[in-house]
Prior knowledge:
CATH architecture: 2-Layer Sandwich
CATH class: Alpha Beta
Radius of gyration: 15 Å
Number of domains: 1
Order of helices and strands: HEEEHEHEHHH
Amino acid sequence: MTGQEALTRILAIDFGLKRIGLALCDPLKTFAYPYKTILNDGKLLDELKRISVEESICKIILGYPLKENGSAAQLGDVVIKFKKEIEGKLNLEVILVDERYSSLIAQEKIRQSVTKKSKRREKGLIDKNAAAIILQDFLDKKKG
């Protein structure tokens, strides 16, 4: 890793038609943490561009929905289109990764760690935690 590369981060995206969950890794690319949830609206790409500059993003991990048998899920085509839009607008590498079970794992993690039921129902909580799970899985596979 060059000195310049060491200061960059990876952004993970858990794509949804209404909301997009985001997670970041630390500059050493060791651990992932939930960052924020943003609306999937007309300002989405501009917001991702702003975040990528502010957080020194070097690449993006995009959750790709697969069915149980490994074939592309219904949202697959929409995610591929979104990947191309990000690459065109942000000029960053976008890597598709299997996101199966990330939302279920995020729900369980939230259930165990967030004590207030009202807080657990926060709409974006699962999205950004699912993004963190996707990113942590990617980082762990890179190490091994």
